[in-house]
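Records of this kind hold a single protein each, on a pair of labelled lines. Below, a sample record shows both lines together.
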Amino acid sequence: MSHHSPDSISAQALKAAGDHAQAEDVAALEQAADAAGRHLATTQSSLIERMIYGPKPDIEELLSGVDNMKQSATSEASAILQAGLSCLEQGDAFGEDGRITSALRNAVAKEGAYGFTVPTQYGGQGKRYSEFACLMENFAANGLGALSVEISGQLTIGSSALLGYGTETQKSKYLPAISGGQLIAFALTEVGVGVNAKRVKAYVEEDKENACWRLFAEGECNKLYITSATHGGLMAIVARKGKDSKELALFITELPESDIDGEFSFHCQSSNVSAFQQNINSRIHFKNFPIPYEQEILGNGVEVLFYCLRMGRCMLAAQAAGFQRMMAADAVYYATQREGVGGKVIKHELPRLALAKILGGALTAQALSHLALAQDQDKVDLAGLRDVTKSASAHYLLNSLIACERVMGGRSLDKGSRISDIRATAHAFGIVEGEDDLIRLGMVRDLTKSFTENYMAGLLHLLQRANMDKNGQPVVKEKHILKLSLGRFIKSPIRMSNLLLSLASNAGVWRLLGWVARNLVSSLIDRCALWFPSKLMVRYKSIPSPLKSHLRFAEYQLRKCRWHYFKISAAYQLELTQAQLPLQRLGKRIETLMCIATLCAHASQLDESTQRVALAQIEILRSELEGNSMSVKRMESLRIAVKGVAKDLSEEQCSLIKSIKAQPFAHPWDE
């Protein structure tokens, strides 16, 4: 029997505001996320939550990602990368249709790529995910991004479902095959409902006579955009346990070698999308398809998805870092070779700024990926950080694509350019595994959940009660009181008067006032401490001088986000359930500040050229935070930082791209 926990304050507020459908979805998703957290056995609260609400994490915790990354170079990964690059250099990596060839798969499978993180007892190499992230980044950086996408999916939302929730029989049967190179997909999205996990319509019915489930995913219930789903492969599929059931289950399915029509039917065809064109991406139909009982993975399908997505988002960031390093290598080669107005392209500030953006985006994605992986390894809750890792990496990847196009112009649009190969995929990264702005909304909800339940619950419960009649039934929507305001008081003076009287005797409201008083004192101390020089603070002793002030700025501004959320909550109250714009803006601010903090910590332990890239990216991010303030000081700091990066690039001293061979131009002008 599944354990049903009480609805969160968010779900209750949605019900009180009259949005019962969304309340049901939010409650189910939160329960699945909580269950995945319990399965992971996390021992510490989220890093970003502590940076906002306290207690402040030690600086060593922020440095844990780069420490892990520096220990993640392995001979096994090097052998796999070399096998892939050899295949690429010989022209055997991609076929005439542009897709990954069996030659490339076989070459890297022989070196253990498809079982890189699978435990050795199941035929894998048993490597850490931080080592895997380095391999995925290097694949993407060297023109093998499609292979990175395939193997990343294989070992995150593919095999992780089995490792986390599978029986010993299932693991012993399927993990050795996966390690040997058999493809496995994860089928959630559907034609009719997209990625909304709680609205999945594919279902199974029990067939006791044949001791199996029968799977139905027809028409709009077809599974769509399923990467690596192919004839003869494996697939974990999310489906309802009964056509009208609300219970979602997960089944591992062995797909037939060809399409079938008869007692049951199965069709597998291309999703027909421009993104991931070098990968297998399929639309799949099932009717009365048999799945033996023993192939059910015991766990709520959405819970398993949350469990797997944390690694999926880290690997997406690693790939984004690699793609941007590749873009930077090609754009830098162009800018240092191409004659522009009055000299080489790289002579001018705007192309230099574009190059700094590409490199800065790569470093940001790399830093976030490894910090999140280190946190997961240390059993820290990834709430907030897994979201920032994905949304920021996808966002900066797309910005870098535009910057690369601005530097290279039409050359980047050539059909033979590897920039063209990843263009649609770069756009897709913003929506796969969750659309970025919706992820930011979820991030704010996760980070503020404890505060809301501990301190805002009293006020919200009073508003909920005010929206019920004397028989305990909801009042009509037109009479809903969503917040305390003068306008509402004029419309409903008696109900509002009773509500205001109730505030004085509500213990939750007094708890909130106590929180405000304590945090006013804390904020005053923080503000006074700003007068103390950063270079004299023990906390920042391991951070190089140019980065100290930026890290301190980010930490201070993150603590101020507690007040931003409090003001939004106080202003909107129950209307906050419909107010996506202010929450999205707060989520974006938190994301930007966390990127600054992570960049400072990550770059502090790396070489000086990387530190200069970090400084340029931080100046860009701080300029975005300030908007068009036209601060001369900020603009001059940005110019100096960009100039430092350009100097390294001109002298071929930028370590982020030093090992990457730039792609020759499709139509060299010297011919």
